[in-house]
Amino acid sequence: MKIAFATQDQQRVDAHFGWAKHLAVYEISPTGYGFVQDFGFGEDLAEDGNEDKLAPKLDAIKDCAIVYVAAIGGSAAARVVASLPEAIADCSLVLGTTARTREQHFRVMEVRAAGERIVADARLGPVAVLFGTERFGLSNEHLLTAHALLRIPANPAYESLNIAMAAQLIAYEIRMAQHQPGSAVPVREAPLATSDQMEQFYAHLSRVMEEIDFRDRTQNGTHLMGRIRRMFNRAELDGNEVNILRGILTSVQKKRRRAGDEH
User: What is the CATH architecture of 2-80?
Assistant: First the structure.
């Protein structure tokens, strides 16, 4: 996995993404890390509304999974990743960060256990950790993409950490998990279904539910699909299991079409 650091002095993460003179790229793996390349930017870096100047930097980090910056503008952040579904499309395990001790309907993992789980699943495929804004956290829509929520135990009087601190603590636990002799996390035979595969399954399920008139009977009619998503996220399906379920859904659709033709 490649990571990049925005820096002015090539020693610290001290640069705004758009104004950074250097982007230092490193490769990290379970066995260590190594320097890959320093991308230098000598042109005028002052903010002037010309977003075309971001293009060389975005190209430099196109293969990077993580980018560390002192700050980043909204337009640059939006161009690094256009949307959450795009960012996690090929990820299997997805964990969402939370400051709450309990979250209804979601499984909550402490950061140390989450670090072990991340290391175990990363051996089979990409893993994502989601961070919300410091003021509001992750939205309900974003939470529905997560298999579980990750919590960092902190002072009960102020449990919400800033994003930089939370990212450091999670990275530390991942690093520690990489070097411990054994793990309590069971070894999976197959990677989890990717986020994109799950989204296709949910879309397919939603179509079939509409075709058979299985609708949300709650008062506001918006809870059913969210509950279904949380249920299947907790089940942690692999790709083959998703294919089996989609095969069942396709059979239901074919059966209904044949029944319709007969009448």
Answer: 2-Layer Sandwich (3.30)
